[in-house]
Design goal:
Layout (H helix, E strand, L loop, with lengths): L7 H6 L13 E7 L6 H11 L4 E5 L1 H6 L1 H9 L3 E4 L12 H12 L6 E2 L8 H8 L3 E2 L4 E2 L9 H9 L6 E5 L2 H20 L3 E2 L4 H4 L3
Parallel strand pairs: 1-2, 1-7, 1-8, 2-3, 4-5, 6-7
Helix pairs in contact: 2-8, 5-6, 7-8
This protein binds zinc ion.
Length: about 210
């Protein structure tokens, strides 16, 4: 189950990042990475709307540049947006200055105090600089929807083991869409049945104690 959940020792080791929201209320935080995409993102928005669910979209700024209308649709639906770099950079393999420049470039397209490092891979120096301005949002649950060999039942089971404040990752990307179309509707229904409210993130929520 390692790939779907982040072990708590890692969360403790990197405690300046947001792994889950500290709350006892039945709140969940769905996040969608790598969009916007002109067909997939509107599909996701329609699914969310059916359940009056709000979510957070960590956008690749190059996609925001390509699809400004889709991006505007996310904002108009009162979901949150977050910075996911301009070129979907892997922090481990990118020099600190280059990484920060890419995030700053993305900021021209995405106004947000939320940042998620692509692949969850970020160097300490990069994160230290970004934490002055952003909540660095990781996750507690990864759907692995981008995997072409995904075991749907395994993913669904993992994503159903949520607790108050869980942060869940999906992708509004072409790679993930086949899986997303199966798992997202089922999970939205499940979370509603279980009495969870689905909210968008913001920097204040990330700082709840
Ligand atoms: Zn990504």
């Amino acid at each position: 189950m390692f790939k779907y959940r982040i072990p708590s020792f890692i969360q403790k080791l990197f405690s300046s990042y947001t792994w889950k929201v500290k709350t006892k209320d039945k709140l969940l935080f769905l996040t969608f990475d790598d969009g916007p995409h002109p067909e997939i993102t509107p599909w996701v928005l329609a699914q969310l709307q059916q359940y009056q669910a709000k979510a957070s979209f960590f956008c690749v700024a190059d996609n925001v540049r390509k699809y400004p209308q889709t991006y505007a649709q996310i904002l108009a639906s009162n979901h949150a947006v977050g910075n996911h770099t301009y070129h979907h950079k892997n922090g481990w393999y990118t020099k600190v200055h280059e990484y920060l420049t890419d995030v700053a470039l993305a900021e021209n397209f995405i106004q947000s105090q939320l940042f998620r490092p692509p692949y969850g891979r970020i160097k300490k120096q990069q994160a230290t600089a970004l934490l002055k301005q952003y909540a660095v949002v990781m996750w507690s649950h990864l759907s692995c929807d981008y995997s072409s060999t995904l075991n749907i039942d395994e993913s669904l089971n993992a994503m159903k083991k949520v607790e108050p404040g869980s942060i869940l990752v999906f992708h509004d990307s072409e790679k993930a869409f086949a899986n997303l179309q199966i798992i997202l509707p089922q999970l939205l229904q499940f979370y509603q049945q279980e009495g969870f409210t689905l909210l968008a993130l913001n920097k204040d929520i990330c700082a709840w104690k």
